[in-house]
Amino acid sequence: MASPMSAGTFLRALRAEGVTVVEVGDWEHHNRNHKGPWGPVNGVMIHHTVTSGTARTVALCRDGHSELPGPLCHGVIAKDGKVHLVGYGRANHAGFGDDDVLRAVVAEKSLPPVNEANTDGNPRFYGFECENLGDGKDPWPQAQLEAIEKVSAAVCRHHGWTEKSVIGHLEWQPGKVDPRGFTMAWLRGRVRDRLK
């Protein structure tokens, strides 16, 4: 459990990890903080967007839509590996998930099976949306996978967390399948190796 980084510290942490960052508008102040707290933070959550086209994906994640206002994450990880920062603070990305999973993330233990949605994750997780159709066929380019690894490691490194603080949306909320196309165990292994 930790206080969130400032926007400036977040940006510096990503760049120090070798992430290519694109700052989108006034991302540092674009958030949903008026709807509830941002923090304490406990981990990093990875999603896929079910969209194609970077410009369209970034716009959607920044602005949201009529049923879910933006920002829908903190950063959009494009196919080319660039990370587009669209918001900072509370974002509509995690939704309600399993309190048992949250306890495991806080304790950095193996995750239990997700079976309920009783805890708001939006204040608790840094969120990254990855540009992918999520159909199991849309490829994950190496540059994009490396960027997912780097952003996860950057946040963990700053907070002193291990790879066990990195989870997928499917591990948090019943019925979710994202990210689809690689396993979270594989990603956590990459993050673990990077943090050594």
UniProtKB/TrEMBL annotation:
CDD domains: PGRP. InterPro entries: Amidase/PGRP_sf, Amidase_domain. This is N-acetylmuramoyl-L-alanine amidase. Pfam families: Amidase_2. It comes from the Bacteria. It comes from Streptomyces doudnae. Residues 27-180 form the N-acetylmuramoyl-L-alanine amidase domain.
